[in-house]
């Protein structure tokens, strides 16, 4: 087999797999994998987001799911490719209830990684492309209802006469993208947002905020950014885009609405949700609720001994909007990750005297470097090679979390060598740098703890040049009336303190709205059980609780950056749509 071309190797292996699966022979299918193998599935076999690691895990999954899944119609898509002995091929297939697609990678004639993902539900495909709605009845009708009249009726009735099947709590980027997916699938959904209008979650942030990720990575579903859109999007421009998107995608969106409480009736399978809509108390009765309140939960406040004695102002970064009021004043920024750097730069630009207090080492990567070597498949060059954003999403998702460290370590070996002089200057300024417990860099920190990293878009030069001061390697002992006392006996004079100390887990939002009991039953979000500080084991193999069934029936979490929200919103919507239509969704594996 190894003397065959890549496409022939893929076709031969693929034929054996399809024959084994269609005959229900889990053992034969399992023998087609190498010992150190992975199968990552998004809904098609497991109705879960789950990675099976090793032959035994794959066999157990197949034995539990083949009878109901009934996979058939396996077909390769295009030509296979080969790189350093790994043959890669794309394919499509179908199950008893869905259409699927995937990517396989062969090593020495057997499968090293297999990725399967649901693309559409049979009989409930999205009405788009050739199946798009006509938009008009070509017939005279005295009872005609125009588009605007129908939208007004829907807006008026939903939440009053008619109840949403799904309530999305949080109308930022994640909630908006999920709302669009649900609408395209015909799921009656309502998005509630505490801010006054869509996009305010971006507009209300500090004035200089700009996305650190490039435009090719940040598209929303259905409506990509136009070709003249800037590579890095300013916050207010993003806010305007999100506001436009809610209107164009015809989302049912309630601004100025706060979720007060929610409780689930296990017998009736329905939520009772109390909301405050611009001062009016309304009760909603959805079947499902999705917490889309951002990547994380409430602000994480750290204890600062002596805070009551401090004569200046103390803010969390979530409360910070502009450095203008701090012009000419001495400001301490606690925290040296993304928000800490951004706030420090904004303060410096506003004329403040800024000192950053670094409590632990930070992974720093220059934006230009990351663009060239880290975002290679999300770029104009990638598009020219036929790698669309959708295809790039699939490539990223097809890599199991367990094998990511190896490739990320190799990437950061390149980055460290490429920017060695930059790192030497940064260390020379007193800034502590690391690349994670295992030298795997920014992406693994993002998945494991969501903290401790910064994509450099200018702050590092200010630190190197001494324009932003650094206090690193010393602990805060207490605040004094005029500043901060450190455990080495030194004191930093400060007129104000901005705590850029991050956010708690999303399940803490559940504790405030549903109950402490439900929040604890569900458990924290994010992290993969890597065992590093902030991401305790045991090993999960997938991100905790995100985009999949949780320990609380009919409660979901959706969030992340724009790319994660774009990709995984589809799978949250498919799961909810399947339940609405009464499709059997036997979940393989424990929730969470």
Mean pLDDT: 94
What is the number of strand segments? 24
End-to-end distance: 41 Å
CATH topology of the largest domain: FAD/NAD(P)-binding domain
Helix content: 25-40%
Structural class: alpha/beta
User: So what's the overall shape?
Assistant: globular
Second rung of CATH, namely the architecture of the largest domain: 3-Layer(bba) Sandwich
Q: Going across the major beta sheet, what is the strand order?
A: 2-1-6-5-4-3
Q: Biggest β-sheet: count, sense, barrel?
A: 6 strands, mixed
Instruction: State the name of the first-level CATH class of the largest domain.
Output: Alpha Beta
Uncertain segments? none
Q: Report strand %.
A: 15-25%
Name the CATH superfamily classification of the largest domain.
FAD/NAD(P)-binding domain
Rg estimate, integer Å: 26 Å
| Structural domain tally | 3
Note the total helix count: 18
Task: Give the topology.
Elements: H1 6-22, H2 26-30, E1 33-42, E2 49-53, H3 55-69, E3 72-83, E4 86-94, E5 98-107, E6 110-121, H4 147-157, E7 166-169, H5 173-184, E8 189-192, H6 200-203, H7 235-248, E9 253-254, E10 257-265, E11 270-277, E12 280-284, E13 288-291, E14 313-316, E15 330-334, H8 338-349, E16 353-358, E17 363-366, H9 367-373, H10 380-384, H11 389-397, H12 404-418, H13 420-428, H14 441-448, E18 453-456, H15 459-464, E19 468-472, E20 476-480, E21 483-486, E22 491-493, E23 496-499, H16 507-513, H17 516-522, E24 555-557, H18 562-580
Parallel strand pairs: 1-6, 7-8, 7-13, 8-9, 13-24, 14-23, 15-16, 15-23, 16-19, 17-18
Antiparallel strand pairs: 1-2, 3-4, 4-5, 5-6, 10-11, 11-12, 20-21, 21-22
Helix pairs in contact: 5-18, 16-17
């Amino acid at each position: 087999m190894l003397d065959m071309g890549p496409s022939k190797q893929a076709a031969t292996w693929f034929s054996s797999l399809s024959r084994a699966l269609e005959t229900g022979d889990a053992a034969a299918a399992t023998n087609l994998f190498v010992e150190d193998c992975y199968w990552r599935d998004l809904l098609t076999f497991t109705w879960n987001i789950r990675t099976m690691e090793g032959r035994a895990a794959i066999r157990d999954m197949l034995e539990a799911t083949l009878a109901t899944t009934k996979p058939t119609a396996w077909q390769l898509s295009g030509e296979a490719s080969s790189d350093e002995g790994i043959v890669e091929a794309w394919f499509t297939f179908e199950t008893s209830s869905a259409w699927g697609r995937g990517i396989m990678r062969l090593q020495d004639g057997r499968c090293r990684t297999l990725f399967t993902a649901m693309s559409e539900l049979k009989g409930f495909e999205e009405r788009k492309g050739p199946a798009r709605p006509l938009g008009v009845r070509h017939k005279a009708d005295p009872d005609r209802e125009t588009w605007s009249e129908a939208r007004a009726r829907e807006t008026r009735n939903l939440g009053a006469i008619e109840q949403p099947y799904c309530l999305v709590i949080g109308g930022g980027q994640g909630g908006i993208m999920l709302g669009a997916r649900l609408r395209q699938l015909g799921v009656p959904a309502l998005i509630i947002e505490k801010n006054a209008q869509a996009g305010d979650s971006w507009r209300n942030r500090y004035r200089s905020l700009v996305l650190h990720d490039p435009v090719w990575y940040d598209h929303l579903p259905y409506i990509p950014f136009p070709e003249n859109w800037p590579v890095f999007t300013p916050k207010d421009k993003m806010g305007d885009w999100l506001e436009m998107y809610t209107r164009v995608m015809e989302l049912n969106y309630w601004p100025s609405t706060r979720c007060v409480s929610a409780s689930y009736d296990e017998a009736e399978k329905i939520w009772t949700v109390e909301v405050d809509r611009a001062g009016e108390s309304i009760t909603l009765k959805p079947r499902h609720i999705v917490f889309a309140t951002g990547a994380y939960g409430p602000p994480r406040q750290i204890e600062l001994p002596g805070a009551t004695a401090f004569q200046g102002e103390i803010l969390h970064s979530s409360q910070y909007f502009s450095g203008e009021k701090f012009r000419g004043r001495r400001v301490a920024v606690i925290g040296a990750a993304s928000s800490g750097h951004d706030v420090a730069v904004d303060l410096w630009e506003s004329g403040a005297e800024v000192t950053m207090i670094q409590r632990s080492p930070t992974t720093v990567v220059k934006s230009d470097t990351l663009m060239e070597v880290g975002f290679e498949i999300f770029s104009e060059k990638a598009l020219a090679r036929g790698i669309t954003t959708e295809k790039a999403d699939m490539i990223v998702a097809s890599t199991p979390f367990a094998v990511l460290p190896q490739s990320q370590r190799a990437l950061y070996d390149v980055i460290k060598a490429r920017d060695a002089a930059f790192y030497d200057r940064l260390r020379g300024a007193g800034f502590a740098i690391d690349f994670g417990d295992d030298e795997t860099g920014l992406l693994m920190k993002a998945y494991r703890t969501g903290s401790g990293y910064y994509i450099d878009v200018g702050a590092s030069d200010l630190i190197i040049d001494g324009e932003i001061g650094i206090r690193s390697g010393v602990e805060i002992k207490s605040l004094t009336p005029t500043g901060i006392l450190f455990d080495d006996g030194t004191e930093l004079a400060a007129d104000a303190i901005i705590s850029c100390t991050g956010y708690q887990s999303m399940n803490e939002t559940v504790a405030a709205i549903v109950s402490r009991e439900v929040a604890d039953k569900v458990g924290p979000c994010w992290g993969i059980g890597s065992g590093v500080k902030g991401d305790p084991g045991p090993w999960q193999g997938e991100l905790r609780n995100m985009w999949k069934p949780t320990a609380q029936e009919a409660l979901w979490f959706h969030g992340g950056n724009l790319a994660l929200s774009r990709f995984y919103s589809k799978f949250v919507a498919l799961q909810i749509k399947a339940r609405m239509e009464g499709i059997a969704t036997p979940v393989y594996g424990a929730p969470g």
